[in-house]
Amino acid sequence: MKLYYHPVSTVSRPVLLLAADEGIALEHELVDLFTGAHLKPDFTAVNPSQQVPVLEDGEFRLTESSAILKYLAEKTGSAAYPRDLQKRARVNEVMDWFNTGLYRDLGYGLVYPQVLPNHKREDPAVQKANLAWSRDRARRWLGILDQEIIGDRKYLCGNELSIADDQGICMLTLGEVAHLDYAPWPKVSRWIATMKARPNWGKVNEGFYTYFVAPYKDAAFEGL
User: Fold this and answer.
1) Sequential DSSP letters for 70-132
2) Fewer beta carbons within 10 angstroms: which end of the chain, N or C?
3) What's the pLDDT at 65?
């Protein structure tokens, strides 16, 4: 199987985490987002949406991170995607919640407009209003994550690791680029620490910290 990816990609990193944890052999094809390789005709032929990750398994191709995680977990029989119908439905629910809720406002609303030029609003007043609006919504999602989704659980869907954790932790740690402080949400902070203590975290995320977090270490950002 071949994975088209980039190490800083928030949605590539969960796939890399799962593969590392499960020992899934993948041929890695780097698509350099920093040079615009994802916009070139050769990659557009692979994914017309011009995004990573993309998984190829023979003639079969998948282009969405959530779908790739589920496919790989199902294909390998990973316990991170439980067979029990209701447990699996809970994992699906939490993954959808991150994609349609928290990541939309925290990632695309608050972080990306401050670090990626193509996401920044040209009018300073519009930029300021967008960040304020997104901050308020991100704080609400974090409160739900803290109290309702994590609560007293070790992981997002219970006391066993799932692919929802792989997805969610990469979306939350995107905030490290903009120095976001999750201390007001202690259960979120506890879960982040648990995930980052896992054996493969450092290896999988070395590129993320080197090429995306480190360059902004002295920059000033609007926080939470």
Assistant:
1) HHHHHHHT-TTS-SSHHHHHHHHHHHHHIIIIIIIIIIIIIIHHHH-GGGS-SSHHHHHHHHH
2) N
3) 98
Q: What is the rounded (10 degree) CA torsion for 126, 127, 130, 136?
A: -130
What angle separates helix 65-76 from helix 13-22, to the nearest 10 degrees?
A: 10
- pLDDT score, position 106: 98
Q: For the chain, which domains are there?
A: 2-76 (3.40.30.10), 85-216 (1.20.1050.10)
Cα 109 to Cα 116: distance, rounded to the nearest angstrom: 11
Give the pLDDT score at 23.
Answer: 97
Q: How many CB atoms within 10 Å of residue 133?
A: 13
The model's pTM is 0.96
The pLDDT tens digits of the residues spanning 122-176 come to 999 999 999 999 999 999 999 999 999 999 999 999 999 999 999 999 999 999 9
